[in-house]
Amino acid sequence: MDNFITLDYGSGGKKTSALISDMILPLLKNEALEELGDGAVIDGAERLVYSTDSFVVSPYFFPGGDIGKLSVCGTVNDISMAGGEPKFLSLGLIIEEGLPVADLQRIIDSIRAAADRAGVKVVTGDTKVVERGRGDGIYINTSGIGFLRTPRLSPRMIREGDAVLVSGTVGDHGTAVMLARNEHLVQADLDSDCAPLNEMALALGKQLGADLRVMRDPTRGGIATTLNEFIEDGRYGIEIMEKDIPVLPAVNMVSEILGLDPYYTACEGRMLAVVDAKAKDRALEILHGFADGTGAAVIGEVTGAHPGKLVIRTPMGGGRIAAKLSGAQLPRIC
Amino acid sequence: MDNFITLDYGSGGKKTSALISDMILPLLKNEALEELGDGAVIDGAERLVYSTDSFVVSPYFFPGGDIGKLSVCGTVNDISMAGGEPKFLSLGLIIEEGLPVADLQRIIDSIRAAADRAGVKVVTGDTKVVERGRGDGIYINTSGIGFLRTPRLSPRMIREGDAVLVSGTVGDHGTAVMLARNEHLVQADLDSDCAPLNEMALALGKQLGADLRVMRDPTRGGIATTLNEFIEDGRYGIEIMEKDIPVLPAVNMVSEILGLDPYYTACEGRMLAVVDAKAKDRALEILHGFADGTGAAVIGEVTGAHPGKLVIRTPMGGGRIAAKLSGAQLPRIC
After folding, report:
1. Cα–Cα dist A330/B17, whole Å
2. CB contact under 8 A, A48 and B50
3. Do B81 and A220 touch (CB under 8 A)?
4. Domain locations in chain B?
5. What residue in B sits closest to A264 (Cα-Cα)?
6. Using one digit for the tens of pLDDT, what is the confidence trace for A103-148?
7. How much of chain A is helix, strand and coil, in % rounded to 5?
8. How far is residue B54's CA from residue B92's CA, in Å, rounded to a whole number?
9. Do B128 and A42 touch (CB under 8 A)?
10. Which H, E and C letters describe A54-69, residue by residue?
11. Do B52 and A143 touch (CB under 8 A)?
12. pLDDT for residue B328
């Protein structure tokens, strides 16, 4: 291997083969991938959950993770939120000419570690290289297949009085990435929350059954945008209590300096869940049983009072409407 | 919609929603996609074939197609070559800030038309926008799921004496793209061969059974590179006859001027197939029955004479060894 990626590595010829066989295969080895055919054959005898996400995060290394870890967790989490148990991933790399090979190695290592943790296999992949100045180091697309393990989950299942939960502190990921971009402006001890949510989501789905209405991971646009998505059909509103929403002091501090709003900042290892009010304590207990759910909290409820609107209540009793994110608060956060 | 894509369209907020609901959904509408959850739930009760490909072709419009058509055909073909009947696609867009919205519309239209022709549905997707100068108009990743319809297909099934077929003229796609890049240097009447191969491949798989050893579409690196992949395990060699390999006069002419070799130039609507010698006439007849297979030909055979090597025989009886593509003959051809 050379020290830097050249266009040759995207040719489909010898260098592409070398990149795959010397670096990618040894780390991501499994029967389906080893065939190196154009498609992987996998066994599936159930209802499938299928998802895709492209990752363009800048910088590609950030506190608490990198684009590799993120690209596995992002798709694992999307499948999990849809009620699936993720099993297989595809991996599409778009590499900019000049990427240090050592960086690529570190990213592939992260992919491997995250895939192991989430119990998924990368079974098919593709590598392209674009000229210097036509990318930004590396972009990654993953797609994933899982098997459905829950009854129907959808915002349409939400009812008045349902409880709204979050699995941990909000805004860590987006704030950590902004920190990495602004090291000269502000220092803080803060890691991205980036983590696979499949076990936690599966437990919630299995144990709550129909009491679980919908789950979603608040990535781009943060919890405010995702909660707005839940009530888009205009049947109900959601009210959340500012005092109950867990936010790390470091996230508050950095957000203030950089002009961010943690409720609109991406998480990559958190989930929002809407559950029947009578199941909220059980749901909380389940979440608290996982390392990534120790900070879980009930943060609000579904109301008939202001259909289609998310209202954030302050400790003083006041309330403000929080609309969907408009414009790009944080471009290339994931 | 605005006339040009801004970073806001990648925010995950209002503009992203508008882009999806105003442009993408109306064209790609289906039940699974309409849910707009993070993952699509689809039915699958069989062995799956799963594939992914990123498309970075430059320019994104070229004679005979565009990046949208290519991104559907590429993944449809990869699944088909692995013996699968493609059913579901994911669609990941990485758009550069400033892309004319009219171009995006045209690309989505192409995706729709190609998906319709191939009988596949786009069931899940993702949209990211990167800053001007960090991409090149648009990159597209697709992945796809199909159901396995053939016995095991693999280069390992190849035996001495097997016949090698190609489904039509070679090098059209790569040459057409190079033509689009060099309009000032050379004019020719030439279209990319870009097309979905699923029906043709399925027919071959179903009717030949175990007489079909392996199929593959010769994209990056062209037929020379793909044929080398077939014999990589070193058990056999392949010999092909120059006089039998169909090449359009326009491809020969443009290749000569631009210094290309059609045997190393990408096709995007052609397939190579290795079949038992006794099945070669039947295979040819099947291919000839399809619009994209009218130019099919037997071009060579598997031999024990020079294991691991592809030899191209000239009409005069001479032969040259054609190795895998080394270096990037044509960067960003797909």
Report:
1. 16
2. no
3. no
4. 39-148, 155-321
5. B13
6. 998 999 999 999 999 999 888 888 888 999 999 999 999 999 998 8
7. 35, 25, 40
8. 9
9. no
10. EECCCCCEECCEEHHH
11. yes
12. 64
**Rounded to whole angstroms, how far apart are CA atoms B237 and B311?**
8
- Indicate the CATH number of A39-148 among 3.30.1330.10, 2.40.30.10, 3.40.50.720, 3.30.565.10: 3.30.1330.10
- Are B13 and A324 a contacting pair at CB < 8 A? yes
Mark yes or no for CB contact A327/B40 under 8 Å: no
Q: Are strands A297-303 and A237-241 parallel, antiparallel or unpaired?
A: antiparallel
DSSP letter for B296, please.
-
Contacts of A44 in chain B (CB under 8 A): 44-48
Whole-model pTM? 0.89
Angle at B53 between CA B47 and CA B59, to 5 degrees: 150
Residue A208: CB atoms within 10 Å:
21
The nearest alpha carbon in chain A to B214 belongs to A37
CA dihedral A10, A11, A13, A18 (to 10 degrees): -20
Same fold, B39-148 and B155-321: no
pLDDT tens digits, residue range B87-99?
A: 999 999 999 999 8
- Residues of chain B contacting A124 with CB distance shorter than 8 Å: 50-52, 143
Chain-wide mean pLDDT for chain A?
Answer: 90
8 A C-beta contact, residue B165 and residue B276: no
B45, B82, B123 member nearest A38 (Cβ) = B82
- Sheet arrangement for strand B47-55: A40-43, B47-55, B138-148, B84-96, B121-130
Q: Which residues of chain A make contact with B45, given a CB cutoff of 8 A?
A: 44-46
B276 in helix, strand or coil? Answer: coil
Phi and psi of B85, rounded to 5°? -100, 105
Distance from CA of A313 to the nearest CA of B (A): 22
Complex ipTM > 0.90: no
Q: How many contacts does A have with B, using Cβ atoms within 8 A? A: 292
**Nearest neighbour of B92 by CB, restricted to A39, A50, A52:** A52
Q: How far is CA B299 from CA A41, B5, B163, B239, B270, in A?
A: 29, 47, 8, 8, 14
Query: CA nearest A47 in B: which residue?
Result: B43
Architecture per CATH, B155-321: Alpha-Beta Complex (3.90)
Nearest to B325 among A11, A77, A216 (CB): A11
Least confident of A21-30, A295-304, A319-328, B202-211: A21-30
Digit-by-digit pLDDT tens for chain B (334 residues) are: 688 877 777 666 777 677 767 776 776 666 655 655 555 555 555 688 889 999 999 999 999 999 999 999 999 999 999 899 999 999 999 999 998 988 998 999 999 999 999 999 888 888 888 999 999 999 999 999 998 888 878 899 999 999 999 999 999 999 999 999 988 888 899 999 999 999 999 999 999 999 999 999 999 889 999 999 999 999 999 999 999 999 999 999 999 999 999 999 999 999 999 999 999 999 999 999 999 999 999 999 999 999 999 999 999 989 999 998 877 667 888 9
Query: Which among B30, B48, B79, B332 is the top mutation candidate for probing chain A, defined by the most A β-carbons within 10 Å of its own β-carbon?
Result: B48
Encoded tokens for B108: 């989505």
Strands (E), chain A: 40-43, 47-55, 61-62, 65-66, 84-96, 121-130, 138-148, 163-166, 212-216, 237-241, 272-275, 297-303, 310-313, 319-321
Range with the poorest average pLDDT among A35-39, A217-221, B237-241: A35-39
